[in-house]
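Risk mitigation, structural track. In case the binding assays with MV4 fail to produce interpretable data, a predicted complex structure has been prepared as a fallback.
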Amino acid sequence: MFHKILIANRGEIALRIIRACKELGIKTVAVHSDVDSQALHVMLADESICIGPAPSAKSYLNMKAIISAAEVTDADAIHPGYGFLSENAEFAEICENCGITFIGPTADSMRRMGDKISARQTVTAAGVPILPGTKDGVKSVEEAVRIAEEIGYPVIIKATAGGGGRGMKVVHSPASLPNAFAAARSEAQAGFGNPDVYIEKFCERPRHVEIQILADKHGNVIHLGERDCSIQRRHQKLIEEAPCPVLTPELRKKMGECAVAAAKSVNYSSVGTMEFLLDQQGNFYFMEMNTRVQVEHPVTEMVTGIDIIKEQIRSAAGLPLRFRQEDIKISGHSIECRINAEHPFKFTPSPGKIDGYHPPGGLGVRVDSAVYDQYTVLPHYDSMIAKLIVHADTREEAIHRMARALDEYIIEGIKTSITFHQRIMRNKEFIEGDVDTGFLERINF
Ligand code: MV4
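Fallback model:
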């Protein structure tokens, strides 16, 4: 097992990783920017080290500074958390070349899943369903027109190097294809430094259902069931739950087996997530793989009882999986609300000093957060300040528990999305589980 882990991240996920390390008896090193010296992850780690000025590009994304910090503190592994360097294959490679274990998959698995065309080809070969679309990148408008005609409208143009919904264009008719094609290419170039795009059939009103994967370095891969992440706004997830309210045991088994096959096809080790779209008819299609631990991993922890971060660390240390697929039992229902420092209905950022803080508690309530009373939420970083997670026997009880916990949560001095979530917990369609990825765009607050 590792002796000391450097956490190359901040906020609640840095804290989450420190907690897992403490329980495993592993020493921790926090890294922080100039403006983060008062952050909780700095206070709770065994050691801390400043890695640069406020902008992420100069601190939390600064590979040289992070590797140096690991070297001077004699850390034998780096946990990247989510965001920042977590899906950077070059960083994973640099860590390994410096004799530091990168707690994540290999650079090769990351690259094969990071390129969306290569991911589509790889998982198809493993028997996983994908939406009809191009096998290779689409180079010209003429080719795009021909392919769209073949697939049938509506189609969606996506960046090969993209992901998470950035740089996508939905096209409903041939007339709007040329402009959308050109726009998608230039956005892909500007956003990812690669203009390549591909075309897929556009699936209307899908649910976003993802499967949590757990894999070791000995070829063992299992899944921990699914999460439904359909409640999102502009590709920012706001509420996640497990299990998915509409998945049958048969469909769960089929999707799980596909997710495991897809992971095995890239020799995946570590934790990861297969994203699928589930259409109104109950068909599912692979979208992309996230080769990191995700923000919403706690809902899976709550329904499986498995500490995903601890298992990820064990896997990185070369230990074999401690569970077989048959050992995984889903019990009860869990919901997570992401609490952001923002205007609850305008979704504009609201950084500043927290002046009055009281988190909720009680049976089945978990708060993953790195804020405290009198803490200043900084404008430089992501606006998510807490994740409120509940667990109960049934979905209905989980919704009531969440509503109760949200009512208890006091955060003064800044605006937060607590009021938004209170509204959703009382929304008829949400209560009935009748949601899809367009839900938030349709409802009027
Ligand atoms: C799609 C889709 C419909 N059809 N692909 C968004 C995130 C990325 N992982 C894939 N995403 C989507 N891909 C096809 N062929 C719908 C989404 C999607 C979405 C699209 C528009 C607006 C909001 C969305 C929310 C979730 C998923």
